[in-house]
Amino acid sequence: MSKVNIGIVQMSCVASPEINMDKAIREIRKAAVNGAQIVCLQELFSSLYFCDVEDYDNFKLAEPIPGPSTEKLGAIAKELGVVIIASLFEKRAPGIYHNTTAVLDADGSYLGKYRKMHIPDDPAFYEKFYFTPGDLGYKVFKTRFGTIGVLICWDQWYPEASRITALMGAEIMFYPTAIGWAVTQDEATNRDQYDSWQIIQRSHAVANGVPVVSVNRVGYEQDGAMKFWGGSFVANGQGKLLYLASHDNEETQVVEVDLNQSDEFRVHWPFMRDRRIDSYHPVTKRFIDED
Question: What is the pLDDT of residues 120-132, one digit of tens each?
């Protein structure tokens, strides 16, 4: 397919997984009615962002993948004829948990999962307490509406991850995300952080010549100490913004992307042609010491 309609669901969350799931399904339906063919939900959409604290009780939120959530979303995908990208808290085995995104094809089938590779550990983002780093490598999924790559939040800062995903054949890259501002920060710092976040992802679109879709949550969490900044967007393979969500509102939007543009962008900006793959071995080192 040349043109694909992408559905973005930017929403706020509450403590109840059932309420969050019901809201997500309602918004998936809304996107489908408006023509969406692939719908992406935000990171860990079925709960509050629990990584603000190190609390053993939060492990109870995890589930197997495939499991109850993928079964429910698979049925919705089949009913509506849409692909669903769903970020979930995976319980792999006793004591082994992952931050994982599952992909359900438009016939309801479970295509597989991607486990978040880069795990942050910052104040109010204590993900290393919960998540084992992904061990499936980078992934692409051949859906009814195109071959998609999925990365998750902190992965978005690493050009190596997007490059590998593009080299594997991803025609669109998706980034389910949960990122926000501490309410004590000044507005200038907030703006700088958001701009950096958007710029790095748009640069992945430019470097690889493919559309990038980033879906963030919105609203106040952590007892009001964190405002998730929304700002979800779709950029084409030249980095042009096709859609930009607000910082404050829940939004479900459908955006058309043209997959045929990737060939044009790559021909006129031949980054893929001119890559010096023989010179890139230093990138596998932690740091290049002068001696």
Answer: 999 999 999 999 9
The structural domains of the chain, ordered by start, are: 3-284 (3.60.110.10)
Per-residue pLDDT tens for 58-87?
A: 999 999 999 999 999 999 999 999 999 999
Lookup: tokens for 115: 């486990």
122, β-bridge pairs: 125
Give which of 183, 214, 228 is closest to 49, Cα–Cα: 228
Is pLDDT above 80 for 291?
no
Q: CA-to-CA distance for 4 and 27, rounded, in angstroms? A: 18
Which residues lie below 8 Å from residue 223, measured CB to CB, with a gap of 6+? none
Please indicate whether residue 13 is annotated as part of the active site: no
Catalytic, out of 91, 116, 139, 227: 116
Task: Tell me, yes or no, if 116 is annotated catalytic.
Answer: yes
Active-site annotation holder among 13, 23, 40, 43: 43
Residue 153 is among the residues annotated as catalytic for this protein: yes
Taking the whole predicted model, whether its pTM rises above 0.85 is answered as: yes
Q: Which residue has the tokens 């669109």?
A: 172
Are residues 253 and 245 in contact, defined by beta-carbon separation less than 8 angstroms? Answer: yes
Considering the candidates 51, 153, 171, 227, report the single residue annotated as catalytic.
153
H or E stretch at 192 = helix 187-208
Contacts of residue 256, defined as CB under 8 A and 6 or more positions apart, other chains included, come to: 3, 4, 5, 6, 242
